[in-house]
Amino acid sequence: TMPEIYWVWGRRAAALHSGSPKGFTVLEGGNLWMNMWREGNADFVHGAREAVRKEIAGRRSALITLAGLTRSFLGRALESIRAMPADWLWFLRLHPGVARQDKAGVVAEVEKTGLKNVRVEQGTDFPLYALLAEVDLHVTFDSTCAYEGLAFGKPTVIIDPSGRKNYQELIDRGDMWYSADSQEFKKAAELATKTNRHKA
To answer: At residue 196, does pLDDT exceed 70?
Structure first.
């Protein structure tokens, strides 16, 4: 069974369906759920965003989204955090596919580092869109959350070669930034937040 209409978020997605069989319609309908979170008018949206703001408590903040979970990914994420000023607050978001089984282990790993400014449970349990609406910076390896960060007007720094490959066009255009290692990360993060052209 094939659909008669493909509802997609925008032009880039519509272009992927340009070769769809005759008689099928591609509708650029946008993401109504995301728009609701961006506008923040619904009571449940307002409540979730307020909970994130309360946790941030006026500090500079960032969200790191993990597409998967390996020791090297976690290590790289923590190195990036260490490269930044200690007064930043970091939400570390585990992918839904690994969150339930691995969250306690990741919390324990973070506690071993002595970092007091990393929130794994809140980063994973708060709604993604509430976090993207309120943080100052989004960081990812190669998660498609990079597109969602862009939609919320949040600068995104890619910190893995696979992500660089996937988002090269947007990096070249200055819509996202790339950091090859933790030494470059601080520079990329500062540049991203300073020159952010996509305020929500």
So the answer is: no
